[in-house]
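User: Design a sequence. Structure:
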């Protein structure tokens, strides 16, 4: 019996983590905590979260950079490096839709996560809004009925220039303070859902 107990003790000793390994495990858990939070935010919201993606990825990249010098265990360092490489590979060239979603979200419209892209995306957004505005204007034009082919041609092809409110709307939007970073379970969500913001304040 004593021999069996001794053997079991040796097996248990092999399975148990020593002090250094326990500290390494704790360090790993701490390293991964922000990623668990990000996952919870992305999948816990009740509205589309595309606008969160780029700001969140940038925040995680900055976190990995800052935490590197604080890690003491080689294995945890390697995990950090692998995560950093994986993010860089996946998000090396973000699609324009992600930037558009972020700039249209009142919580991220100031582009603090990518200030170098702000003017470019703002210009692209203006172009897209003007194109939509012009299409709506064309669809609203009445069809002119005339027995004269010449009159019919000029009436249908010549379009009176319409003053677009896009510039005014964009200026109003970007002049407003950036919305606070609330969660979907925050009472603010009831009145400041980023999807409903444009329905309330849009002028076009």
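Assistant: Done.
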């Amino acid at each position: 019996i004593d021999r069996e107990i001794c053997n079991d003790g040796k097996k248990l000793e092999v399975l148990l983590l020593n002090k250094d390994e326990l500290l390494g495990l704790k360090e790993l858990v701490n390293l991964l905590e922000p990623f668990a939070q990000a996952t919870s935010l992305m999948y816990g919201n009740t509205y589309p979260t595309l606008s969160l993606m780029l700001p969140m990825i940038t925040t995680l990249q900055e976190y990995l950079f800052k935490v590197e010098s604080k890690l003491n265990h080689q294995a945890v360092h390697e995990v950090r490096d692998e995560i950093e490489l994986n993010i860089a590979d996946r998000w090396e060239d973000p699609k324009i839709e992600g930037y558009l979603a972020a700039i249209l979200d009142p919580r991220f419209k100031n582009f603090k996560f990518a200030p170098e892209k702000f003017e470019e995306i703002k210009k692209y957004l203006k172009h897209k809004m003007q194109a939509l505005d012009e299409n709506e204007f064309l669809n609203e034009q009445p069809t002119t009925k005339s027995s004269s082919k010449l009159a019919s041609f000029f009436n249908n092809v010549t379009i009176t220039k319409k003053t677009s409110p896009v510039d005014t709307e964009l200026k109003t939007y970007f002049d407003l303070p950036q919305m606070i970073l609330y969660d979907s379970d925050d009472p603010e969500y009831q009145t400041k859902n980023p999807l409903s913001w444009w329905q309330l304040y849009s002028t076009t």
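The CA atoms of residues 132 and 204 lie 10 Å apart. Residues 117-204 form one domain.
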